[in-house]
Design a protein that fits this description.
Number of strands: 19
CATH topology: Double-stranded beta-helix
Bound molecules: succinic acid
Oligomer: single chain
Order of helices and strands: EEEHEHEEEEEEEHHEEEEHEEEE
Radius of gyration: 19 Å
Low-confidence stretches: none
Strand order of the largest sheet: 1-2-3-4-17-10-19-5-8
Mean pLDDT: 93
Number of domains: 1
CATH superfamily: Clavaminate synthase-like
Strand content: 25-35%
Shape: globular
Length: 295
């Protein structure tokens, strides 16, 4: 998504080039080496509301600069602790996502595995509102990150499905991370009805845009309270197949110095696996969210 004739000027020198897919845009015109003005941030926020995922290319960011940029969008959240890892003792707000192993210990989470479609930390009562991912090292191929648009997913559901799910909720399993690893302190879930995790409405109103979004979180061990398990599985399978269809998705192919930010309420994301003998290192921050009520 280079700056081209399709770029739209959002003001304050901020140019936005839509991906052409159901979401995502490239943004240029920001100088991350200096404090960003209120006008610049206002333009970025409008672009984010329009496109849900923004990419800034060729950026150089320290952890402090990544945190400072993220703070424009809310209060920084503590980083989740990856399976088998300890929270960053120095900057508990920046999470390392990496397959790199130093002295026999992984320096970050998620390894080189595929990470399945999910909403970050939706197993919490108040999942984060936005996530920010900055690439320091990228593999020569693989490790692409896909995003899908959950407002479009809701909008395009058949009317009967919208009516059926209007008052339903879903339990979001907290026992495993998106790479399928069992989190520290959790037991294997045999029956989704028994899975630990927060319960959220299946349909939420976005707190900023007011748009209605499907809120699925994660498929594994999900359960719709009040339904027979077999019914819950069938409905969830249908909703997931609908929401993650390619027409609603866009894929980020990482270059070093990419900063990608996404709306965690109006999108889900996943990651392709990559060759574990190659290196991938990203730094992630996130900002606090809200408890979702019924629409
Ligand atoms: C994530 O799920 O936050 C990580 C995505 C990635 O590694 O690209």
């Amino acid at each position: 998504m280079p700056l081209d004739s399709t770029a739209v000027h959002y003001g304050a020198g901020v140019h936005v080039t839509p991906s052409g897919a159901a979401l995502a845009a490239d943004v240029t015109g920001l100088d991350f080496s200096k404090p960003l003005s209120a006008n610049t941030m206002e333009a970025v926020k409008r672009a984010w509301a329009d496109h849900l995922v923004l990419r800034f290319r060729g950026v150089s960011l320290t952890d402090e600069a990544l945190m400072a940029f993220s703070r424009h969008f809310g209060t920084l959240d503590r980083a989740p602790i990856p399976a088998g890892e300890r929270a960053d003792p120095v900057r508990g707000y920046v999470l390392t996502i990496s397959n790199i192993v130093v002295d026999g210990k992984p320096i970050g989470g998620l390894g080189a595995y595929e990470s399945v479609w999910h909403t970050d930390m939706s197993y919490l009562d108040e999942p984060p509102y936005a996530s920010f991912l900055f690439s320091v090292e990228v593999p020569p191929s693989g490790g692409d990150t896909g995003f899908c648009n959950m407002a479009v997913a809701y909008e395009t559901l058949p009317a009967a499905t919208k009516a059926r799910i209007a008052d339903l909720s879903c339990k979001h399993d907290s026992s495993r991370n998106s790479a399928g690893e069992l989190r520290r302190g959790f037991r294997e879930v045999e029956d989704p009805r028994e899975a630990p995790g927060a319960v959220h409405p299946l349909v939420i109103r976005h707190p900023a845009s007011g748009k209605i979004c499907l809120f699925l979180g994660r498929r594994r061990n999900a359960y719709i309270p009040g339904l027979e398990l077999v019914e819950s599985e069938a409905l969830l399978d249908d909703l997931w197949a609908h929401a993650t269809q390619p027409a609603f998705c866009w894929y980020q192919q990482w270059q070093v110095g990419d900063l990608v930010m996404w709306d965690n309420f109006a999108t889900m994301h996943r990651r392709d696996s990559f060759d574990p003998t190659t290196r991938r290192l990203l730094r992630r921050t996130q900002v606090s969210g809200v408890r979702h009520g019924r629409v």
